[in-house]
Amino acid sequence: MYIDHTENLSRTYNARHACLQTTRLFGFNLVRSTRPNMADLLVNAARDGQRLHVNFLNAHCVNLAANDDHYRAILQDSDMLLPDGSGLALAARMARQPMGDNLNGTDLFPDLCERASVLGVSIYLIGGQPGIAEAAARTMQAKYPALRIAGYRDGFFSPDQTDAVVDAINASGAGMVFVGMGVPLQEKWIARNSARLHAPVLLGVGGLFDYYSGRIPRAPMAFRAVGCEWVWRLMMEPRRLARRYILGNLLFMARAWFYAASNHGGGWSTSSRKRLLDLFGGIAALMLLLPLMLFVAIAIAIETRGPILFRQIRIGENGRPFVMWKFRSMVVDAHARRSEIAALNERDSICFKIRRDPRVTRVGAFIRRTSIDELPQIINVLRGEMSIVGPRPALPEEVLAYQGQAWKRLHGKPGLTCIWQTSGRAEIRFEEQVEMDLHYLRNSSIAQDLALIGRTIPAVMKAKGAY
Fold first, then answer.
1. Residue/partner pairs of 371-375 with CB below 8 Å, 24 or more apart
2. Cα separation, 115 vs 136, whole angstroms
3. Contact at 8 Å (CB) between 9 and 119?
4. Domain carrying residue 278
5. Residues 326 and 445 grouped into a single domain
6. CA distance linking residue 417 with residue 395, whole number of Å
7. End position of a domain, from candidates 148, 179, 213
8. What is the DSSP letter of 416?
9. Tally of structural domains, the chain
C-alpha cells in the first residue's frame, strides 16, 4: 500500500538531483540510489517541468555499446543512466565500486505509476506489439485508479509516421513518456525526437510492457531474489534470447573482468584468475544444466507442496554468513523434526548425517544421491559468495563447535566441490575433511581447481558417500 509522502515529495528536484551519487563502470556514470528515492525524484521532475532523459544500462547494453559508437554516446549523454540487473552489480563488485539498488525499469515502473497517481502526473506508453501498451496501461490504472493515462500506442510505425506520433504525444499533455521499443532502437528514437517532445521526463524502458500486459509472465520471486531473472526469460523465449544470454553473458563477464583488472588493480593474481574461472564456469554450467534444473523444479513441485528452493544460512569466508541455495530435498517441516531423529545421527562428530533420513522425499533422495540438489549454488558462485572449488560451507552451529585447526577452513571461500567431495564425501570423518580442506587452501591453484572439477564428475556419477 502506498504511504503518503506528500511533504517528502514537495522537495524540489534540483536539491535532490544535486545529492545524487554515481558509480563509474565501463565508461558510464551510473546513478547510485534507492528505488523509492529514484521514483520520487523522477515523478517530481515531471511535475515540476524539469526535463530529464533517462536510460538504463544492463549487461546486454554494455555489449551493444562496445560496437555501436552512436548508441554509446547516447547513453553517456543521458541525464540519468540507471543500473539494470545483477550483471552490473556483479561488475561493480569485481571492480570494487559501490552500487545502489538495482534500478531496472520493470521494478521501477509500478513505483513511478504509484507516485504519479498521487501527484497527478500523466503518463504515455509507446512500444510493443499492437494492444500491449494499452493492456499495460489498463493494468496500472486498475491498480492505481487515480493514475492519469495520457495515451498509448504500439511501436510499429514507419519513419514517415514519426511526426504524427510525436504530435499525438504532445497533444496528450503527458508528463512522462515510457518508450518500450527495445535497445538500442528506443534510445536512438528518443535522442532523435527529444527536442520535439514536450513531456519533461522521457524513459527508454525496453520490454516491460510485455510483463504488465500479461503477455509474458514475470519470473518467480525465487529467480529474482538470487539475481537470475534472465534465466527465467531465457526459458520463456529461448529462440529469441539464447544468443543474448548464453553468449552475451559470457562476453559481458569477460568485459567486466578485464575492466576490473585494468582499471582497479584486479591484476592476474591467483584470486582474480580463480574468480574468472568461477564466473565463466558458473555461467557455462548454468546454461548447460538449465533444462535439467527446470525438470527437477517441476518434479519437486509435483511431489510435495512448498517452495522449490531451500535457503539456509551458511558461514562463508572469514566467518561472513550468507544465504546458500539448494533444491528442496526434504519435507517442508524438516528442521522442526530434526530433534525427533537426533538419535539416528550416523556421524560421530560435528556434522549431522543419516543414511536413510525419513524426512527426505523420493525426488529428494535422487537429487541428493546425484548431487543435483546442490546446483542452485551456482548462483552463490556467480554472486561471489562461493567458489566452484573450496571447503564446503558449514552451518553456524557447526562452526560454533569447531576446535583446533577446523577454524582455518574459514580462511577460504566455500565451494561447490572440494578434495573430500571427490574422495568419499560423507563417509570421510570430519577431522579428515578438515585436513583435506587445509591442504587445499595451502596449495590453492587454478591447476588444482581444474583437476578437482574433473574428478568431481566421476565422483558424482559413482555417488559414493552421497546421502
1. 371/460, 371/466, 372/292, 372/296, 372/327, 373/326, 373/327, 373/329, 374/326, 374/416, 375/285, 375/289, 375/292, 375/293, 375/296, 375/327
2. 17
3. yes
4. 268-462
5. yes
6. 16
7. 213
8. E
9. 2
What's the length of the chain?
467
Query: Parallel, antiparallel, or unpaired for β 387-389 and 321-327?
Result: unpaired
Tell me how far apart the alpha carbons of residues 41 and 5 are, in angstroms, rounded to a whole number: 12
**Residue 452 burial (C-beta neighbours within 10 Å; 0-12, 13-18, 19+):** buried
Which of 12-26, 127-141, 177-191, 425-439 is the least confident region? 12-26
Identify any residues that bridge with 23 across adjacent strands, giving them in sequence order: 30
Question: What gap in Å lies between CA 329 and CA 301, rounded to an integer?
Answer: 11
Round the CA-based radius of gyration of the chain to a whole number and report it. 25
> What integer pLDDT is reported at residue 86 of this predicted model?
87
- How far apart CA 230 and CA 141 sit, in angstroms, is 27
The 10s digit of each residue's pLDDT in 310-319 is 999 999 999 9
Lowest mean pLDDT across 7-11, 189-193, 386-390, 436-440: 7-11
| DSSP-based helix, strand, coil % in the chain, nearest 5 | 55, 15, 35
Q: Is 403 helix (H, G, I), strand (E, B) or coil?
A: coil
For 144, phi then psi, to 5°, come to -125, 85
CATH of the domain at 171: 3.40.50
Q: Model confidence over 11-45: pLDDT tens digits? A: 344 434 545 899 999 999 999 999 999 999 999 99
Mean pLDDT of the chain: 87
Residue 268 class from Cβ within 10 Å (0-12 exposed, 13-18 middle, 19+ buried)? exposed
At 320, which amino acid appears?
Answer: R
Residue 247 placed within a domain: no
* pLDDT tens column, 135-165: 999 999 999 999 999 999 999 999 999 999 9
Could you report how far apart the first and last alpha carbons of the chain are, in Å?
A: 46
Among candidate residues 213, 235, 260, the one where a domain is terminated: 213
- Inform me whether the pLDDT recorded for 243 exceeds 80: yes
**C-alpha 107: how far from its chain's center?**
12
For strands 176-180 and 201-204, give the pairing.
Answer: parallel
SS3 103: coil
